[in-house]
Amino acid sequence: MLPGACLLSNNTVRDNICHGEGKAWYTRGCPSSFGWLALVGLSLYILFFSPGMGTVPWIVNSEIYPLRFRGICGGIAATANWISNLIVAQFFLSLTETIGTSWTFLLFGVISVVALVFVLVCVPETKGLPIEEVEKMLEGRALQLKFWERSDTPKHNLQI
């Protein structure tokens, strides 16, 4: 952090970064009178995403996985969440240039609706249930992962 602060204190570097050719935006502000709309849109996105789909990988991890696999499953879910964020960040600008802004947002909207349907259909409600009941509920589901198999359950009875 200190080298960066020293670099910016240098007038030559600061002037080239902030006021170089084509970089006068720093002193003049946003060139459009609709710049506030981006701030409102970002605020609305954060307002609706944070209590909704943004919490799914974090809150569900504390309730849905068996205790013996909670650490590894939480790590997998967190990794999947950040990889998804990386994919969106990497492809957004390319998609807007290729198919246009409207189609890009439509594509991400469709993906969000599919994710919502998946959560509503596949993720059980665990509110107020003790961990033992959650494990029992998940054992009765038709789709079970191999690592959730109990040691006393024969392998040929595993449902997939």
Automatic annotation (TrEMBL):
Keyword presence, Ion transport: no
Keyword vocabulary terms for this entry: Membrane, Transmembrane, Transmembrane helix, Transport
Gene Ontology CC terms, in alphabetical order: membrane
Domain called Major facilitator superfamily (MFS) profile: residue spans: 1-127
Annotated Pfam families: Sugar_tr (PF00083)
GO molecular function: myo-inositol:proton symporter activity
Compartment(s): Membrane
The keyword tRNA processing appears for this protein: no
Membrane topology designation: Multi-pass membrane protein
Bilayer-spanning residue ranges: 34-60, 72-93, 105-123
Family from the record: Belongs to the major facilitator superfamily. Phosphate:H(+) symporter (TC 2.A.1.9) family.
PANTHER family, per the entry: INOSITOL TRANSPORTER 2-RELATED (PTHR48020:SF38), PROTON MYO-INOSITOL COTRANSPORTER (PTHR48020)
The protein, known as: Major facilitator superfamily (MFS) profile domain-containing protein
Origin species: Salvia splendens
